[in-house]
Specification:
By secondary structure, this protein is of the alpha/beta class. The protein is built from 20 helices and 16 strands. Strand 3, helix 3 and strand 4 form a beta-alpha-beta unit. Helix 3 packs parallel to helix 4. The longest helix has 20 residues.
Length: 491
């Protein structure tokens, strides 16, 4: 398979003719006349690169960005002292100039010729990347073939968004080193981009041309450009009274639009994110970057259909949600949580995986999150799995959405040892959107005319306009005032 070198990759990803190098000639650590110095000279002549890393800036969809990339043809892309210095200088310059940073590693890891001194540079590179992130600046990574060793275990694994090259070898210990040390080969298919995606460690597996589009979409949401979302007219409420059991029945329809339909029909610049980044993935939880009108957001939503088809929402799903919360907090982005669940998993694996603790951590994170938050109660809202995503500055509910400690059938079984009283229990418990608004749990109800399943596109667009209105209102508030109001709300 032909793979682009560093300069070709840059030319593919950035706007044509926009690249400007930041590099200065490296200071070689090799003593003059040594075999290492001769090896470096030979590599420069053969590869056309002066080091294993190049850095600079360019435009991406018209946006100024910084970029660092490895060149594997130069000593297997290994990171020695000079390459590390170039990397750190580039990251620090991007931070100082307030630029989003793109990284495209392709490396066997630490350069053995530079020994322990090169090995320790990974700490310094990691520290520089973390300072960049702490400044509220986006960091987007594209893992290329191959990326192993200390590079993967440092700046290759710290992206806010991470994509990988198809078929790329990506792993902590290179397979040749593993076999040499242990005497048998590493299992096939483990250290591949596709397997990492399956385990929630990368967000996408795409070729270089597609990386450009992913990065453009992602940065349109991740970057704080000093613009504020536009708050249009206040959404209208025109609600036809609906009994609690009718609302619950409608919320359970298979053809009712869920969070994926909302993003498909009424959002733009959508960039799906995948997994926890820590080796877990839950199909019942969707995590994405998106815009609702002019309002950017990190979206984390419960996917009721996939919970039914694959598995109920488990602790991994809530850890995915907490990844989204951290992303919103770090970059100061509005967070939209979407509740639509028949209830979290009830199983041995869920209990041993820490489901209850993850619900508690979600609640704690949301109550204290520094970013603006909006909760959308879209459909079913049963139990702790629903409650985990509820705390927000503003809570919006679809007309036929509901919230309850248990599905009404479960409450009926507790009180009457029979599920037959579920309709009466639902009415008495005040689970409807309008009841929740009356009780101060919900701030705004989005009409269904007469049912979201009959008007999916129109309904989703109505929801999106409401989310845009609420996000814009929160972005216009003083953060200290907003957080004080949230604290008072959940006292």
């Amino acid at each position: 398979m032909s793979r682009p070198d560093a300069r070709t990759l840059i030319g593919t990803v950035l706007d044509a003719g926009s690249w400007r190098s930041w590099d200065v000639p490296p200071e070689d650590p090799a003593p003059p006349g040594s075999s290492y110095a001769e090896e470096l000279a030979a590599m420069r002549a053969k590869s056309g690169y002066d080091e294993s890393v190049i850095s600079g800036e360019g435009r991406l969809g018209g946006r100024r960005v910084a970029l660092v990339a490895c060149e594997f043809s130069f000593m297997a892309g290994s990171i020695g002292v000079a390459a590390a210095r170039r990397l750190i200088d580039a990251v620090e310059r991007a931070t100082a100039e307030g630029l989003p940073l793109l990284a495209a590693p392709a490396s066997g890891g630490t350069r053995m010729q530079d020994g322990a001194l090169a090995f320790v540079q990974m700490v310094k590179i990691t520290a520089a990347v973390q300072r960049h992130r702490a400044a509220g600046l986006p960091y987007v990574v594209y893992l290329r073939h191959p990326t192993t060793g200390g590079v993967f275990a440092s700046w290759g694994s710290l992206g806010h968004v991470t994509a990988a090259e198809p078929g790329a070898l990506i792993g902590f210990l290179g397979p040749r080193v593993f076999e040499s040390l242990h005497g048998y080969p590493f299992p096939e298919g483990v250290q591949t981009a596709e397997n990492l995606f399956a385990h929630g460690l990368v967000d996408a597996v795409v070729d270089a041309p597609d990386v450009r589009q992913i990065a453009i979409r992602a940065l349109s949401v991740l970057c704080r450009d000093g613009k504020t979302a536009e708050q249009g007219p206040e959404p209208e409420e025109d609600l036809r009274p609906v009994e609690a059991w009718e609302a619950i029945t409608r919320s359970r329809r298979d053809d009712r639009p869920g969070v994926r339909a909302l993003l498909k029909l009424a959002a733009h610049d959508v960039t799906p994110l995948n997994g926890t980044g820590e080796g877990e993935h839950d199909p019942g939880l969707l995590l994405a970057l998106a815009r609702f009108g002019t309002a950017p957001a990190v979206v984390l939503g419960q996917d009721r259909r996939r919970q039914r088809a694959v598995a109920p929402l488990g602790p991994a799903g809530l850890r995915m949600a907490r990844r989204g919360m951290r992303l919103a907090a770090e970059l100061g982005l509005p967070l939209v949580t979407v509740i639509d669940t028949a209830g979290a998993a009830m199983s041995k694996a869920a209990e041993e995986g820490g489901l209850a603790a993850e619900i508690a951590r979600c609640l704690a994170d949301l109550v204290t999150l520094p970013a603006p938050t909006v909760c959308l109660l879209l459909g079913e809202g049963a139990g702790g799995g629903a409650l985990a995503l509820l705390p927000a500055d503003r809570v919006v509910a679809a007309q036929h959405a509901w919230l309850s400690p248990l599905p009404p059938e479960g409450a009926s079984a507790i009180l009457y040892r029979s599920v037959d009283f579920a309709p009466e229990i639902a009415q008495a418990q005040g689970v409807r959107a309008t009841d929740l608004r009356r009780d101060g749990i919900v701030d705004r109800v989005v009409p269904e005319r007469p049912d979201a399943a009959y008007e999916p596109r129109t309904f989703c667009q109505r929801v999106a306009r409401t989310l845009e209105y609420e996000i814009a209102g929160l972005l216009g508030q003083d953060p200290a005032v907003r957080q004080a109001a949230r604290t008072a709300r959940y006292r």
